[in-house]
Specification:
By secondary structure, the chain is of the alpha+beta class. It is built from seven helices and 17 strands. The protein has two domains: 17-164, no CATH class; 168-290, 2-Layer Sandwich (60s Ribosomal Protein L30, Chain: A). The longest helix has 21 residues, at 226-246. It is globular and about 55 Å long.
Amino acid sequence: MKMNIKLVLPALLALPMAAALDVQASQVFGEVWRDTIVAASDQARIVYYRPASNEDTKPAHIYVDGEFQTALLPNGFSDFCVTPGQHSLGSYVGDAPHYSGKELQPWRDTLKAGVTYYVRANLDASGRPLVIKPEIALAEMVGLKKQKHVLSRASAVVVCHGSSQQTYENYSFSSDLLFRFKGYGINDIQEEGRKALVDFAQMIRARNMLQKNIIVTGYTDPLGDEQSNQLLGQRRADTVKQMLVNNGVSINKVMSRSMGESQVNKQCYGGRTEKIQCFSSERRVVISIED
């Protein structure tokens, strides 16, 4: 998305930041993300999402063709469709009360019919839409919830009428349960973790799920450097994959990958010991099974 075209449109109102943060969770968020729709042949589908992070927590105001779509909070997503063709998208953090982002729409491109675009909300000042590969976006969106506390004012947005597609059931395992601290190999799996994976493989067989596709994703805490954490997440995912294969799951049905520290949801403080304990929920392996 490269063309520098500036749109100047009337001011639009959104829920103020303070009010948005005070709304009860049940009013802010709806259902948990499940990728159940294939874009219709006469529509382009856009999924704007915002994983939790240690960065700015103020709402990210999303604009479509210079008009307000939603005020996206951490852990939220907005799923909508437009008519195929030229459109501008933008994401501006803390844009209230002047909503100047709607006038800054340099990022414009042709959105194709029948395609779903996964766009991560940009948290810098550029507004640039970050189009993410589907396999990465789907892993990043596990557990996100639909944003519903504000109404779209974007006239280009239309109701999606695509067909249903395959979805995944997600099962999360604590890395602290599965592995010794800093461990990642077969020999590092603790007795309790080994039993959990054996029981899980038995469940797959009992439910006649051996022919279903499985994705194993490793997540780490942010302690240490990013490259090492990416590798650690991959090694743990590879080991869990091998455990499933060793217990009767076809190697051709299992894919392993790592998200490293990219999806950390917490801010933790104190000494290293306190941080290790605080970040325990971030260290996990998620097994996703085709519904």
